[in-house]
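Check my protein:
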Amino acid sequence: MFGLNGIFRTNTSQFRQQVRLAHKIRGKAPIYCRTIKERIDELNYKDELYTTRIDIGFPPERKEKVRQEQFQHLKAIKNDKNLEKLARDQKLFIDLDESKKVWLETVGPLHKKQIADHYAIFEHLYGEGYFIPFLNLDIFYDLKQDSCLPVYSGNVIMPAEAIEPPIVSYQCAPDTLWTLVLTSLDGHLTEQNKEYAHWLIANIPGRDVDKGDILIDYLQPFPLKGTGYHRYAFVLYKQKEKLSYEVPKVTSESSLEDRTFVTRDWYKKYQDVITPAGLAFFQTSWDSTVRDFFHKTLNQKEPMYEYDFPEPYIRPQEWFPLRKPFNLYMDKYRDPKQIKKEYLLRKLQSEDPFKSPSPPLKFPNAQPLPKSMPSWLKLHEKKIRLKWGRVNDV
């Protein structure tokens, strides 16, 4: 029976079904269901044990004076009418080198960190760890054509352009020690969540990279065919003292197994004496030099990958398909080879090795077709005359 406020009551249970305008309202009553905030909090729940991030780099420097100087400089520029006039007349000259220098001293490191997060560089290198690259790392590949190819934050460099070791430079005090590591985040052939160390130089005095201890010789990138873009990251660590890493000497003739590397485990072992300060990374994809690398350097067959596409879905046949051309509908359930064979036989019927082919119709659509011919067959003949569709596959 119905009670007050349109609530339907049953004698067998205490369940109450709310009715409004003769329609039953689905779901629980508002007094029993959760609020929108509770539902959103449940959907966006993240375990702090796995989502808390740790800054493993150097702390940012306090630059209150620099901020005040920038504020005053911007205020003076906005009030300068001469600069406004030059900008309106498109005659204002901007020094890009000076702009880049100011960018690197202010928000540049934060932008690099955001880009690295976008490419999941920190996640795949350190897991929950990250750092802000306050030290600018300039890396250039010499193309031997009076030009250099820089490494920024995710730009594309092909393997043919990165065969030789790059030129590395940065600004630092002369009495400091550094470690440079280059690893591939996506290129391990046999094990997941592991990397290959393509370059490792330790105990670099100041900016003289050539005087450091080369523990792992440089190895060119080798992204496999069919696997898309691979990420290669340069990380520069500052040392507190001279170190002797427990890393076996790896030369250009060593096997790939000797280069297996896990940045997180390696950093965890030496985290008390090294701190990441600089970062640069690039992306690369397959080219012909990768095949030469496998055949001539590694003396093995090049692995190649292809995507295995699933068979296209074809719905079950119908007795009376509506608004579907008869011939196209039936061809879906036939062997494609048999269809091509029919087109080929039709084409060969009009071919004669001793006669020149007949000229094409000047106005194909103006040629009449029999009135008794069904509409689907008329459309089929018009497509053949106009050389549309499958007739071009033969």
Q: What stands out?
A: The chain is about 30% helix and 20% strand. Residues 139 and 151 are 5 Å apart (CA to CA). The chain has a mean pLDDT of 88. The longest strand covers residues 195-205.
